[in-house]
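1st attempt posting a full record on here, be nice pls
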Amino acid sequence: MQPRIPTLLGFILLILFVGVFIYLFENFSRASSSAKSAVEPRNVTVTNVTDSSFSITWETADPATGLIEVASPGAKTEVFYDDRDGTNKNKLGNFTTHSVTAMGQSANTSYDVKLLSNGKTFADSGKPYGATTAPTIGGNPPDLEPAYGTVMTAANLPAEGALVFLSLDKSQLLSTLVGSSGNWLIPLNHIRTTDLNRYLASQTRITELLRIALNGQEANAVTDTLNDAPVPVMNLGKTYDFRRIQAKIPTTPTVLGAQTETSATVALIQPAEGAALATSFPFVQGIGIAGKVVSVVLGITNPIAGSTTVKSDGTWQFSPPSPLGEGNQSVTITTTDKDGKPIAITHQFTIFKSGSQVLGIATPSATITPVATPTAQPTAQPIPRSGTALPTILLLIAGVAFLLGGGSLLLTQQITIR
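the predicted structure (as tokens):
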């Protein structure tokens, strides 16, 4: 009977080994699945479609790098990076919101798109995402000024990186990202109909829908093209209706040394008046008359001068070649309005020390304060966790071990007695 004892012990060790293997495999699988789901693209949307480009936007639970691979039959696969990364493939940023624009595409062509999040490739139910460019069209584009505004978090901080989605009545979907001071801008003078086959017809007032998304929070608004330059300040977690009000914020650009009424087609959008920035390279952006030159002077003690030209969509932008110092700064732009008169606009802003908290931005008061309706927040419910077989396996192993151990001891005693 003595030879049976090693056999029983071996059986016990085998069961223990199986239990440990299951435990390690289960934990490794759960960790891998959790890490992948945290960077898995969600709410993937195709926006800003033209006859030569389109944008892909998505969100991730955790900050991640983002880029896309675009391919069409018989064409070489191209890689495009996040709009905030530009072409700097050696230093990609980590974001929870992602917007990538594929430029230089052919008109009226379908493309396969793969999303790469943190280096992992994601598709749509095993198949590449699809995007189709618009056909080339003629006719007169709508005479619409760019829409712009400011978005803040619930804590009244700039909602930097938030995705802004905009559509007019019976139009295509457009999008952009919120800048460091909470500002956003979307050109409307080339917006097309929903089917992309024609430009949207110009009208005096067109209903406009806005949705802002950032880290699981949203802000929604209904406005119109008479009240979107600017759209009043919005906070995440709220719903707004800006229709039938005059929400435009008056400014006082200087014309030849005299204060005049605001030029409807010239504005300095970023940085906003009173903005608090955490970067020494402020992004300057605005609207103007297409083809006109905009002169920019940044800084107070050591000013940086430069110029840029207003693009065909009525927008312009400028980035300083060298950093500004910390503390109070200013930006002054000069250009001409639609009547050829010189316009000068100055905004004051502050640059914080690196690593310090940005407390928000001051914004000029609108002539009318719209009422915001808080978005209903559902009561949080505990999320059921998937069960695990580990406790049962361990209890089973322990029970078998005790039974076999007891049986071995009994056999040993019987052998000893004999």
